[in-house]
Design a protein that fits this description.
Chain B: Residues 25-474 form the Amidase domain. The structure holds two protein chains of two kinds. By secondary structure, chain A is an alpha+beta fold. Chain A has 15 helices and 16 strands. In chain A, the strands form four sheets. In chain A, strands 1, 2, 6, 7, 10, 11, 12, 13 and 14 form a nine-stranded mixed beta sheet that branches. In chain A, strands 5-4-15 form a three-stranded antiparallel beta sheet, with no helix packed on it. In chain A, strands 3-16 form a two-stranded antiparallel sheet. Chain B has helices at residues 9-18, 23-41, 49-64, 107-114, 162-169, 186-192, 226-236, 280-295, 311-326, 346-357, 360-373, 378-399, 425-429, 436-441, 470-484, and strands spanning 44-47, 76-80, 118-123, 175-180, 195-198, 218-223, 266-270, 299-303, 405-409, 445-452, 458-465. Chain B has an eight-stranded mixed beta sheet, with helices on both faces. In chain B, strands 1-3-2 form a three-stranded mixed beta sheet, sandwiched between helices. In chain B, helix 4 links the parallel strand 2 (76-80) and strand 3 (118-123). The chains are: A alpha+beta, B alpha/beta. At the A-B interface, loops of A face helix 9 and helix 10 of B.
């Protein structure tokens, strides 16, 4: 790492933070992990509960192949070992959100073994500072239901819609050393999941949440005792939780105390963590292989079909944008960070190349720059996302083609784009209707140039006397006189000629 | 006219098909027998005479319309109250499920209704199928119809399918479903002089059957003849995609395949089943069985099942471990008993509900199971037990290299009196000593009546077969049945 390492300055010196994340990612699937019940978000409470989910007597789980497929694809996307023999275990505990009295999970033999994710620590130059974060395993398990304690004065309400929904638990190695690394890891993981399509990554709806393991140590010392902060549901909160938890632990240690291994909760309102239960009260989950289920055995054909179904992943795509399309690492990084951006960009690129009759590599920079500056700027102002962008890639390509063939200037293009956003009309129609077509006729521009020079004879004198900065003034006056529609290149040429 | 309640499945099916009597007449006869015996034997938890009549009417109508009739057409049966029956209370003989009426029908019971059977009622059992005497039922003991001579002491009908065995022996039904986790079909069959087969694990779907120990639970038929068992097993069995452990194999035509000749077959006699101090009547009946199979043409070979002595301890780790988890769902939240003391929180409600709802034997097994799965003990108990289980299964594999079926006693004694062993769980558990190994190995095993002991009580012989070879088991059972000529039935005292 070129940057100086993240350190907490304590009274006794510097402390290093050690972070591991356990991310729970809800698997994209129409039905639950072991029952046919639906999984759509936002249904009426208890509308998506099968007899299996409600743990009625005699009900049995049957694995949903699609959930297994998505977990295997995710494993392949992080270069992980796929375990062709895995098994489901029961994690036993009593709680009202867990109708069976146990969660079906995978403790002893997870579906996915060792893998890794490379994170970039410098957005401007994604290849410069790459750190590899190890992933220990991905296992598949059931989600629990939801309890609502604020609906009734003395009772709690139970909603089992989420009960039995498939989760992937993605367990990292304790390889992260700063909140920024943890944030980068989460963002990268989320991007990969969304590229793969195995999780929608929607942290607000709870389809991705993280348990944050934090410990501190003097740089180079043995690992300290860690705490686990449960169910943190945004990248920002994860980073806040780490910052708070690490300095809390430093305070504890420096005041002569010991960090207690415990489960903690994050409070988003205060940005702090608080104790939930200590190791002494920890449940004994009595894990054992679920006797209702046979071991999960995958054949090579299944794994290969999963592999073949993977899309181009963010790192590969970024490298291709750099090498094949000639984009800068920064722009390539921005375009590939989210699968929607890359998808939109590639649609724009294809349309633009077709409309201009050129290869994609010839129009890539124009398309990329317009997308990252003009479109992103507009979406930001409008508070909209790419998915509900008011212009389509085809409409944008039409605008870019008008610039490329000289019909309008870059400046006019900005105006046309504004009008497109307002009216929803096409670029060519707006240019035609509002007479924005660029004037490239030398004769017409020549006349205006002559008039500008005649009207500003004093400045012409000054220019000729060496005040060359006035050239810009003449360009501006000419453009103004022509309402910006003059082809700037022609204006430049003619001015230079007439000024001698 | 013959007493219809003396008929078995095949006779009823054939008689209904031939028009000798109607299905409704059969149902009425059994309904009457059930009602008359209920106060004395307590074999049923609920009776469903209307369900039996409705099914019978459908069969009679189908026959009148010239439609093809099912394998069990016109046969009214008892349904062990471990099978979920839509609209009919299903309790597993536990207070914790009192009043629970499922909205669904178990696969096995549905298969039987589809085959034309009707339901006489839900049969009593040991609570959650945990027991060998029916004394753990929350709905009172089943009383065996059998008595010792000149002795009115109530005897155990065996367990856990004790309602099934008592009802069949007392001619309250021609057949009934049972479930067998460590012997719960075979031991009660042996105690009451009837036949019963536990098929290969996975033959009958567990969907809709209240779970005791998932890796061991297996449903099977109980009836008075080997042929009846074959007919009923055909109707019950079959692949069920709703049960992940269900066998995806076609159901053989076991009835058509019945063949009592043992010519060319080798029968294994496991050395380790000869226990010191073995009941001489049981030993004699075993010797009789050996002689009968030899007479049927079999070659008798001695085989060794060296890990037999570990079977009981292994079973009493694995079964309670699974049960402790399977029974966690009875928590008072969604169905069944809910005990919510004033001001109680969630944990208090769990504790109160489960304390009030589960009987002592169920609690004992939940505690054993919780203990063997707990951190620090898991490897010493559960992991070790799984290893031994694999060795026991291997014992059988090796033995079956030398024989086609294995012959053994079903239980170490004839029926005991109620109360005789209920204070001594270990003595009770020893009842399963001959039945548990086949359960652990998932093998088909059957008990057929072998005769009476010196007290006049029935004894059973057990045939254990190779996985999927129910036919071999049934055929050996048939050979035994033909030679045993068991016709004894309990004198009617109820």
């Amino acid at each position: 790492m070129t940057e100086s390492a993240y350190r907490i300055q304590g009274a006794t010196g510097e402390w290093e933070v050690v972070i591991g994340l356990e991310v729970h990612a809800q698997v994209v699937s129409k039905s639950k992990l072991f029952s046919g019940a639906a999984t759509a978000f936002g249904a009426e409470p208890n509308a998506q509960v099968s007899l299996v989910d409600a743990a009625m007597p005699g009900m049995l789980p049957v694995p949903n192949k699609e959930c297994i497929r998505q977990a295997v694809r995710t494993g392949l996307a992080i270069d992980a070992q796929i375990n062709k023999w895995s098994r489901f275990d029961r994690k036993n505990y009593f709680y009202a959100d867990l109708p069976q009295g146990y969660q079906i999970s995978q403790l002893y033999h997870p579906l996915v073994g060792e893998g890794h994710i490379d994170i970039s620590l410098d957005d401007k130059n994604p290849d410069a500072e790459v750190k590899r974060i190890g992933i220990e395993r991905i296992h598949v398990e059931q989600d629990a239901g939801k309890l609502m304690h604020d609906q009734h004065p003395t009772m709690s309400y139970v909603d089992l819609n989420r009960s039995g929904v498939a989760l992937m638990e993605i367990v990292s190695r304790p390889d992260m050393r700063s909140p920024a690394e943890a944030g980068a890891y989460l963002r990268k993981l989320r991007a990969i999941l969304r590229y793969v399509g195995s999780c929608d990554g929607n942290m607000e709806e709870g389809s991705m949440r993280a348990d944050v393991n934090v410990s501190v140590r003097k740089p180079g010392a043995e690992f300290g005792t860690r705490t686990e902060t449960k169910n943190v549901n945004s990248v920002r909160f994860v980073m806040q939780a780490i910052e708070h938890e690490a300095s809390r632990q430093v305070d504890v240690l420096e005041s002569g105390g010991k960090v207690v291994q415990e489960t903690r909760l994050f409070d988003p309102d205060t940005g702090t963590t608080r104790s939930m239960r200590s190791k002494e009260d920890a449940h004994d989950y009595r894990y054992f292989p679920d006797p209702d289920l046979l071991p999960l055995e995958l054949d090579d054909a299944f794994v290969e079909a999963c592999r073949a179904s993977l899309p181009e992943l963010p790192d590969a795509k970024r490298k291709r944008y750099e090498t094949a399309l000639g984009l800068t690492p920064y722009v390539a990084g921005v375009l590939t960070a989210e699968v929607e951006t890359a998808r939109w960009f590639e649609a724009l690129l294809a349309e633009t190349a077709t409309k201009q009759g050129k290869g994609e590599e010839a129009v890539a920079k124009q398309a990329a720059n317009w997308l990252t500056s003009e479109l992103f700027g507009a979406l930001n102002r409008l508070g909209r996302s790419l998915e509900d962008s008011p212009v389509s890639p085809a409409q944008a390509a039409e605008l870019l083609a008008l610039v490329a063939d000289g019909t309008i200037s870059g400046t006019i293009a900005k105006q046309v784009f504004e009008k497109m956003l307002e009216s929803g009309d096409g670029a060519a129609a707006i240019v035609e209707r509002d007479g924005l077509k660029q004037e490239s006729d030398t004769g017409a521009i020549e006349a205006v140039v002559a008039k500008v020079l005649a009207d500003n004879a004093d400045k012409v004198e000054q220019y000729k006397a060496g005040k060359e900065a006035l050239f810009g003034f003449f360009v501006g006056q000419t453009m103004k006189a022509m309402q910006g529609k003059a082809n700037p290149q022609v204006v430049n040429e003619l001015l230079k000629k007439q000024l001698g | 006219m013959t007493d219809l309640t003396d008929l078995g499945i095949a006779d009823i099916r054939n008689g209904v098909a031939a028009g000798t009597f109607t299905a409704v007449e059969v149902a009425e006869a059994f309904n009457a027998a059930v009602a008359a015996a209920q106060p004395a034997l307590n074999a049923f938890i609920v009776t469903t005479p209307d369900a039996a009549l409705d099914a019978a009417r459908r069969v009679d109508a189908a026959r009148a319309a010239g439609q093809a009739l099912g394998k069990m057409a016109g046969v009214p049966i008892g349904m062990k109250d471990l099978f979920a029956t839509k609209g009919v209370q299903t309790t597993a003989a536990s207070k914790i499920l009192a009043g629970f009426t499922p909205e669904y029908e178990s696969t096995v019971s549905q298969n039987l209704w589809n085959a034309g059977a009707g339901m006489l009622g839900k049969l009593n059992l040991d609570q959650f199928a945990m027991g060998s005497s029916n004394e753990t039922s929350a709905f009172g003991n089943v009383i065996s119809p059998w008595r010792r001579p000149n002795d009115t002491a109530p005897l155990a009908p065996g367990g856990s399918s004790g309602g099934s065995s008592a009802a069949i022996a007392a001619r309250l039904c021609p057949a009934a479903t049972g479930t067998d986790t460590g012997g719960s079909i075979r031991q009660p069959a042996a105690f009451t002089g009837i036949a019963g087969i536990k098929p290969t694990y996975g033959r009958c779907s567990r969907w809709g059957v209240v779970a005791f120990a998932s890796s061991l639970d297996q449903a099977g038929p109980m009836a008075r003849s080997v042929q009846d068992c074959a007919i009923m097993l055909e109707a019950m069995a079959g692949f069920d995609p709703k049960d992940s452990t269900s066998l995806d194999l076609p159901v053989p035509e076991w009835e058509a395949g019945l063949n009592p000749s043992m010519a060319g077959k080798r029968v294994g006699i496991p050395r380790e089943y000869r226990l010191d101090g073995m009941d001489p009547d049981v030993a004699k009946s075993w010797d009789d069985g050996i002689a009968w199979l030899k007479d049927a043409g079999a070659e008798i070979v001695e085989v060794s099942l060296p890990h037999t002595k570990y079977a009981l301890p292994t079973y009493y780790i694995i079964a309670p471990a699974e049960a402790s988890s399977n029974l966690a769902r009875y928590d008072g939240v969604r169905y069944g008993l809910r005990d919510l003391p004033d001001g109680a929180g969630l944990q208090d409600m769990y504790a109160a509900t489960r304390a009030a709802g589960f009987g002592p034997e169920v609690k004992r097994r939940i505690m054993i199971g919780t203990y063997v799965l707990s951190a620090g003990f898991y490897d010493a108990y559960y992991t070790q037990a799984q290893k031994v289980r694999a060795l026991i299964a291997r014992d059988f594999e090796l033995a079956f290299q030398h024989c086609d079926v294995i012959l053994a006693p079903t239980a170490p004694t004839a029926a005991f009196a109620l109360g005789e062993k209920s204070d001594d769980p270990l003595a009770m558990y020893l009842n399963d000593v001959f039945s548990v190994p086949a359960s652990l190995a998932g093998l088909p095993a059957m008990s057929v009546p072998a005769g009476l002991d010196r007290q006049g009580l029935p004894l059973g012989l057990q045939v254990i077969g190779q996985a999927f070879d129910e036919q071999g088991v049934l055929n050996a059972g048939l050979a035994l049945e033909q030679r045993a000529g068991f016709t004894a039935k309990p004198a009617k005292w109820w």
